[in-house]
Structure formats: structure tokens, C-alpha cells
Automatic annotation (TrEMBL):
InterPro entries in alphabetical order: SOCS_box, SOCS_box-like_dom_sf, WD40/YVTN_repeat-like_dom_sf, WD40_repeat_dom_sf, WD40_rpt, WSB_SOCS-box_domain
Keyword entries, A-Z: Ubl conjugation pathway, WD repeat
The name this protein goes by in its record: WD repeat and SOCS box containing 2
Domain SOCS box: 148-184
GO terms (BP aspect): intracellular signal transduction; protein polyubiquitination
Pathway: Protein modification; protein ubiquitination
Native organism: Buteo japonicus
Length: 184
């Protein structure tokens, strides 16, 4: 799958096999400007000028959660997953880079920045690069985490199993909820 954010109130999911539209993800109140898949491709996040990050199941189109900080009232510019898939970074017009812990559903770190436009984690973790509208790049130290065995197992399974395949497994409901990111 490929996701596109074209400045509409929705993001579009495309099949890279047939090059056709799979579904339109609707839920934002303003233009969607950024999107990113989790490292295992089991989650998709979208960021919008409505100051919300929505986490989606790309296989079902279901909204799993919405992240919004009480102080995060400015338009979002960018969102990206950390390499282990447990954190998100966002850049907003309020001049802050935020790092969100998905388990907590809230920011765990902040950094001041001016004219923020985009952000991206270093592939091996530990650092975030942010780009600004005036052409500068800044580098930030990001939290490093040792993933739990539980999360590593989920990440390994979701790398090759879709949500529908997980739901068809003969396993307990609570385990299915965990493997499909309904619970952390």
C-alpha cells in the first residue's frame, strides 16, 4: 500500500499491485498534510491542519485513536513513526517538535523550533531530523527504547500478517486485540 495526503480532509490508500484506490480515510476536519506507516506497516498515522494525529488500521480503514494535546492547537505540518514503532514525532506551527509515546497517548518530550516543516527519525533510532521552511535542518536527540518481547513479537507477526489474517487466527480475543493494535 501507499498513502497520499493531497491537502484534502482525507488521505488516500493505494494498491501498489493494481495501482488503484483502495479506500479514502476520512476523519480529519481540515487538510491532511502528512502521513507515515509504522515499521511493520500495521498502522498508518495522518497529521492535519486540524491539530490532530489520527492512527488508522490501513487494512480495515478503522480509526484506532486520535492524538491531540491540550496545548497542540496549531496546525500540524508533519508526523513520523520511530523505527521501533512505539513513538511518533510531530512538527506544528506552534514552534514545537513533540515526541509522543503511543502507549501513553500523550507527548513525552518537546523541543522548540522555528518555521518547522517536516520531521524524520534516523532509521536506527536515537535522532530526529527536522526541516524548516527557510531551508535549515536541525538534529535532535530522541528517546531510545528497548522494545518489550511482547512488542517485538507483534511487530514480527504484523510484518507479514494483515489485520484480517490476525483476526482469523485461532487465538484468544485479547491477543487479537493486542496484535491488531487495539490495545498496547
Amino acid at each position: 500500500m501507499l498513502c497520499s495526503a493531497a491537502g484534502e480532509k482525507s488521505a488516500l490508500l493505494w494498491s501498489m499491485r493494481s495501482y488503484t484506490l483502495i479506500r479514502r480515510l476520512e476523519g480529519h476536519q481540515s487538510s491532511v498534510v502528512s502521513c507515515d506507516f509504522s515499521p511493520d506497516s500495521a498502522l498508518l498515522v495522518t497529521a492535519s491542519y486540524d491539530a490532530c494525529v489520527i492512527m488508522w488500521d490501513p487494512y480495515t480503514g478503522e480509526q484506532l485513536r486520535t492524538l491531540r494535546s491540550e496545548v497542540h492547537t496549531s496546525s500540524l505540518r508533519s508526523v513520523c513513526f520511530s523505527p521501533e514503532g512505539l513513538y511518533l514525532a510531530t512538527v506544528a506551527d506552534d514552534r514545537l517538535l513533540r515526541i509522543w509515546a503511543l502507549e501513553l497517548r500523550s507527548p513525552v518530550a518537546f523541543a522548540p523550533m522555528t518555521n518547522g516543516l517536516c520531521c524524520m527519525y534516523f532509521p536506527h533510532g536515537g535522532f530526529i531530523a527536522t526541516g524548516t521552511r527557510d531551508g535549515h535542518v536541525q538534529f535532535w536527540t530522541a528517546p531510545r527504547v528497548l522494545s518489550s518481547l511482547k512488542h517485538l513479537c507483534r511487530k514480527a507477526l504484523r510484518t507479514f500478517l494483515t489485520t484480517y489474517q490476525v483476526l482469523a487466527l485461532p487465538i484468544p480475543r485479547k491477543l487479537k486485540e493486542f496484535l491488531t493494535y487495539r490495545t498496547f
